[in-house]
Amino acid sequence: MKIALIAHDGKKADMVHFLSGFKDELGRRDIELVATGTTGSHIEKSGFRVNKMLSGPLGGDAQIAAMAAQKELGMVIFFRDPLDKHPHEPDVQMLMRICDVHNIPLATNPASADLMFKALTHTFDGIEDD
Ligand SMILES: O=C(CO)COP(=O)(O)O
Annotation-wise, does 122 bind a ligand? Predict the structure, then answer.
């Protein structure tokens, strides 16, 4: 399965932290990671193999949306920063719309991504209270 990973600047550390919690589980499965450019660099530095697209503002979200439209993606994890402005907001909306059009699982925060990854890796054992 190919999984797309995208994080706005204020959420890149969250993305790396989130992924590191599933490193062993992901390594045991046939999973290919793709990411927008800068998110991909952060992920790569934390020890994952990832195929990097363009940076989001330069069209990376649009490239990932194209993959989603072509049914190449099993899920999309997109940690958006709701407290910041983004010059490419139309691309962001387009990506989320395409996921809905094609019924592709889309997590936009760590809590939902955690549930999706636990389902994927069969490690779900109940929802934890904070
Ligand atoms: O802007 C983004 C998502 O909209 C992410 O792009 P980068 O991973 O290149 O920062």
Answer: no
pTM of the model: 0.94
Per-residue pLDDT tens for 81-130? 999 999 999 999 999 999 999 999 999 999 999 999 999 988 777 776 66
130, part of any domain = no
Q: How many CB atoms lie within 10 A of CB 119?
A: 12
Q: What backbone torsions phi and psi does residue 126 show, to the nearest 5 degrees?
A: 105, 155
Pick the closest to residue 11 from 110, 99, 86 (CA basis): 110
Active site residues: 61
Q: Is the ipTM beyond the 0.95 threshold?
A: yes
User: Mutate which of 5, 8, 14, 79 to test ligand 1's pocket (most atoms within 8 Å of Cβ)?
Assistant: 8
Mean pLDDT of all residues in the chain? Answer: 95
CATH classification of the domain holding 92? 3.40.50.1380
Whether residue 126 lies inside any domain: the answer is: no
Structural domains of the chain, count: 1
